[in-house]
Design a protein that fits this description.
Layout: E1 7-10, H1 13-23, E2 35-41, E3 44-52, E4 72-80, H2 88-103, E5 109-116, H3 123-126, E6 131-137, E7 141-144, E8 150-152, H4 153-158, H5 163-169, E9 170-172, E10 176-183, H6 200-205, E11 209-210, E12 213-214
Parallel strand pairs: 4-5
Antiparallel strand pairs: 1-2, 2-3, 3-4, 5-10, 6-10, 7-8, 7-9, 11-12
Length: 217
């Protein structure tokens, strides 16, 4: 079996959400995702990539000079079954980027975040021509001290959970968040207002993670 045997095609949100809940480590979906690609292998959908607006677009849009709100999307979720062949992730990303570039000409770039608290530091993005543009200690993901529920600060806000309750009942998850960007229009990388970060920095800082386990640097 080979990654060349997979087929990528658009699917509806309902089906994409179902696949994502089944295979994503969080078991959750992003409600405002808009563009969905299914990863098919042997006639079965074994993976999904979901794109949509960032939760807080105002903090992201200014990363590249001249960008409007409609010029970028976030890769919100990427979830794959263990049944998929090796290297399916990088092949799926490559195909999806080509499809986005062809069918959504107004898009300039894609942003995504690797969760170095529960999942990984973004190995697949580094192998797929993304650039690393941000590393920060996790402050947004919190875990409830009793129930173990993991939520983001913005989710707490939308649920009207008071800051006092949130701080008291939810502990920050240890780890880091990594921001990656992919330029559908490569010439626009010159407009990036933040420096790119060399991938070796992750190892040098000793903050690598793969499949939910800290790397032995």
């Amino acid at each position: 079996m080979s990654a060349k045997d997979i087929i990528i095609k658009p699917i509806g949100k309902k089906d994409a959400d179902r696949i994502c809940k089944k295979h994503h480590y969080s078991g959750k979906v992003v409600q405002n995702s808009q563009v969905h690609f299914g990863v098919f292998y042997k006639d079965n959908c074994e993976g999904v990539l979901q794109f949509g607006p960032s939760l807080d677009k105002s903090k992201i849009v200014h990363l590249v000079k001249g960008t409007k709100f409609y010029n970028f999307l976030e890769l919100n979720r990427m979830a794959f079954s263990e049944k998929l062949p090796r290297f399916s992730e990088s092949r799926a990303i490559s195909i999806c980027m080509k499809m986005l570039k062809k069918n959504y000409p107004h898009l300039d770039w894609i942003v995504t975040f690797a969760d170095g608290t529960q999942c990984g530091d973004g190995t697949i993005y580094r192998a797929s021509n993304f650039v690393l543009t941000g590393i920060r200690k996790n402050e947004s993901l919190r875990k409830h001290k009793v129930t173990g529920e993991i939520i983001q600060k913005l989710t707490a806000h939308t649920r009207a959970i008071s800051s006092k309750v949130f701080t008291r009942d939810y502990d920050p998850l240890p780890g880091y968040q990594f921001r990656y960007m992919y330029f559908l229009k490569p010439e626009l990388i010159k407009n990036l207002i933040v420096p790119t970060i060399h991938f070796d920095t992750i190892k040098e800082m000793g903050i690598g993670m793969y499949k939910g386990k800290k790397r032995n640097n």
